[in-house]
Amino acid sequence: MERPAEPDRAAWLDLSAGVAGDMLLAALVDAGAPLSQVQSAVDAVIPDTVRLVVSEVQRAGMRALKVDVELLAPDQHHRSWSVIRSRLTAAPLDDSTRHRALRAFGALAEAEARVHGVGVDEVHFHEVGAWDSIADVVGVCAALTSLGVSSVTVSRIALGSGTVNAAHGRIPVPVPAVLELVRGWDVVSGGDGELATPTGVALATALATGQGDLPPVQVISRGVGAGTKDVPGRPNVVRVVLGQPVGGSFTVDSALPPDDHDAGASEPTDLESAEMVVLEANVDDLDPRLWPTVIDALMDAGAADAWLTPIVMKRGRPAQQLSVLTDARHRAALCELFLATTTTIGIRETTVRRWALARGWCDVDVDGCRIGVKVAHRDGRVVTATPEFRDVEAAASTSGLPVRHVLDRSVAAAVVAGLVAGAAVPEGLRAQA
Q1: Which of 309, 329, 356 lies at the terminal end of a domain, its last residue?
Q2: Residue 338 belongs to some domain of the structure
Q3: Is the distance from CB of 74 to CB of 55 less than 8 angstroms?
Q4: Are the beta carbons of 153 and 8 closer than 8 angstroms?
Q5: Spatial separation of the C-alpha atoms in residues 149 and 288, rounded to whole Å
Q6: Is the predicted pLDDT of residue 320 greater than 90, yes or no?
Q7: 19 and 47 part of one domain
Q8: In angstroms, what CA-CA distances link 133 with 195, 234, 236, 254, 410?
Q9: In what order do the strands lie in the sheet with 318-326?
Q10: How many CA atoms lie within 13 A of 88 on its CB side?
């Protein structure tokens, strides 16, 4: 897996009062995301349509930032997922922002497809397809990128109660799309009305890697984003805490559904456990020179792993089986990449459970070049320490030395730094994205 981008920061989202896209955007801007960069990303996707306006407000006596999306052009609220996906794909965005936005909208499209019983590409967003909602999604993803956030976790999500008016009439809270999006996540009802919107929940669940209380971090900044209503006695806000992970690997409770059976005494309970999805396709007609670009695109889009297996298909034709391991939140975006980057016309899906060692990153110096070392650990002790090969390649290119020599020196530098099996886990281990 590719090493997280610098600076390596963790974001924790307090959603105990609910979440909406504009609230989350306001919290990130309040935490330090430059509004100009956020506006530029939004303009790249929907040019000359909206302007982001920031103001300070009070919510139940708490100071918060409010972001309003002012329309600069007429808008219709109904847009298909395929139209929005095309805009995101074609827009001049950085890869991190683009992939995050595709994941959020892809998760929402899957939820809407299940709710309405249609195919994903047949989904038409209603309120979520409006300019302001697109601005919220792209703005949040751009804000996370500008803040250097590499991992996101969330608190328990407050959903609300009662009923709300929607495109198809008055429906109960939480609305069906929200219920689909929070499958496997810890939630709480209560409160008056809709506390969590589909846009807000899609962003939270698609971009977060886990759920729990505020993890051990060295706090860098914090932000408070306001919702529209000012409810007496209950601050209608989303809070974000940005920090550097401390005390070893940054791990949280899995946000995916548990197994149906109880954990037995023989299961390795000290390992990280998560329900994952394996996506597969058999391909016999793709130019083999393209496979490295396919694998890189899948990994960049959130795959936990991706690999090829040589196979023989019908009538003796040689082919490759493309396999991707991912969590359910990245499934929609990765399926889209399967279809966009290969010639397959179908994808298989299998649910699996992965047991994994905790892991993080340390840096070593090799001839003036920084080499990241991925450290897997258990019970406070190093199990493996492996130099990041992309860093080794980059250092070899800089130094003019053969890659194998730089790799040997990187392994030696890791040993000198004490990154060897059985050694204590070093202080300041950075989080694995």
Answers
A1: 356
A2: yes
A3: no
A4: no
A5: 35
A6: yes
A7: yes
A8: 16, 25, 19, 28, 47
A9: 305-312, 318-326, 272-283, 348-356
A10: 28
Q: Contact 281/342 with Cβ under 8 angstroms?
A: yes
Residue 405 is assigned to a structural domain of this protein? yes
Distances (CA, A) of 420 to 127, 185, 333, 409, 430: 54, 37, 37, 15, 17
**Based on the domain organization, do 114 and 76 belong to the same domain?**
yes
- Helical (H) or strand (E) element with 334: helix 331-341
Torsion-angle region of residue 325: left (phi > 0), alpha (psi -120 to 50) or beta? Answer: beta
Looking at residue 290, which CATH number applies to its domain?
A: 3.30.70.1380
Burial class, 384, CB count within 10 angstroms (exposed 0-12 / middle 13-18 / buried 19+): middle
* Helices within 152-197 (DSSP H only): 176-181
- Looking at the structure of the chain, the number of domains it has is 3
pLDDT one-digit tens code per residue, 159-211: 999 888 766 668 888 998 899 999 888 999 877 789 999 999 999 999 988 88
Q: Indicate the residue among 322, 356, 390 that finishes a domain.
A: 356
The 10 Å Cβ neighbour count of residue 285 is: 9
Return the pLDDT at 15: 96
Report the distance separating Cα 280 and Cα 347, nearest Å: 6
Tokens, residue 167: 């495109």
Using 50, 70 and 90 to split pLDDT, how confident is the model at 359? confident
Q: What is the pLDDT of residues 63-74, one digit of tens each?
A: 999 999 999 988
pTM attached to this predicted model? 0.60
Strands across the sheet containing 157-161: 187-189, 157-161, 193-194
Residue with token string 């920090």: 243
Task: Report the C-alpha gap between 203 and 20 in whole angstroms.
Answer: 9
Is 263 inside any structural domain?
A: no
Which H or E run includes 359? strand 358-366
User: Does the residue 252 lie in any domain?
Assistant: no
In terms of residue numbers, what domain contains 282? 272-356
